Amino acid sequence: MLLEKVHEGFEVPCPACDHRFLVPAGATDVPAPPAAVAPEAPPPVRAYPDAPPPVRYGDASDDCTIVLVLGIVSVVAVPLLGPVAWILGHRARSRARAEGRQPPTNATVGWVLGIVGTAFLLLVGCFLSFMIAAVFRSR
Q1: Scanning 14, 37, 100, 111, which has its CA 20 to 30 A from the CA of 23?
Q2: Is the C-alpha dihedral spanning 60, 66, 72, 75 positive or negative?
């Protein structure tokens, strides 16, 4: 059954959802045939089947920013925070690897800065012990 000529070029509501459609010239009430269903694509073939699966990158939900801040503060001002940043950075990196993700950059940088801060702590400790020993020897 053809739509009346009155509807050509006008908007008519859809009987199912009330969405308004523009009726083109020469439209009919005959529904279009159903679209052909595309066959499901086969899984992609990996060029190197023995290669490990791709690594997911870390997200910001870990405490990586805290590790980064502690690492920076341990190098700049308070070397006592170096071991804390080192340990927390190691835990964040281990957790990411256990979940199959690449360790987040914040955790890696904080971890390295924690190691550097711990080295500064050891250097300051050695310097202070030599200074204290020099003071006691001079007496």
Answers
A1: 37
A2: negative
Tell me the two tokens of residue 95: 């957790």
114: nearest Cα among 138, 78, 139: 78
Per cent of the chain over pLDDT 70 is 77
Q: Position of tokens 């500064």? A: 120
CA distances from 109 to 78, 84, 119, 138 (A): 17, 14, 15, 43
Contact 109, 92 (CB under 8 A): no
pLDDT in tens, 5-21: 456 677 777 777 777 87
